[in-house]
Each structure stands twice: as structure tokens, then as C-alpha cells.
Amino acid sequence: MSVLDNWEQWKDFLGDRLQQAESEGMNDGVISDVAYQVGEYLAKQVEPQNEQERILADLWKVANEEEQHAIANMMVKLVRSDYR
């Protein structure tokens, strides 16, 4: 079973990676850039596995680059809120 199969598992996975990045001293700018790159990769290479991922994929497709950065930043905020 992939972490992409379940929304909560996906958020937990992202949260673990975020905590690891922060503990290694990555600043918010780097984390934001990585989140955007992950979003780009997923949009181009990975078929959404659940409703939430489908919504994010659809939003990503219609967004311009600035809006895509905003989506990536909101995902970081969402994951952070679950761990604080």
C-alpha cells in the first residue's frame, strides 16, 4: 500500500519529511521550493489515488506558477498545523 492511497497517511508522510527537513536546518524558503517541486512532480508523474489528491491535481492544472507556489505553501501549512 502506497502512502498516496490514503490522505491521512500522505499527510503523515509529508509531516515526517517536514520535521526531518526542519531538524536538519532547512529554512522556510528551501522547504517552500521543495514543496513546489514535489507538487510539480506529482502533477506530471503520479495519478491521484483519492478524492483529495484529485482536487489538488485539478487545482494545480488550472493554476499559474504563482498560484502553484501558493498551493504548495498551503500544503506545508496544513501539514505543520497537524504537528503543532
From TrEMBL:
InterPro entries: DUF3243, Uncharacterised_YmfJ, YmfJ/YflH_sf
Highest taxon above the source species: Bacteria
Protein name: DUF3243 domain-containing protein
Native organism: Halalkalibacterium halodurans (Bacillus halodurans)
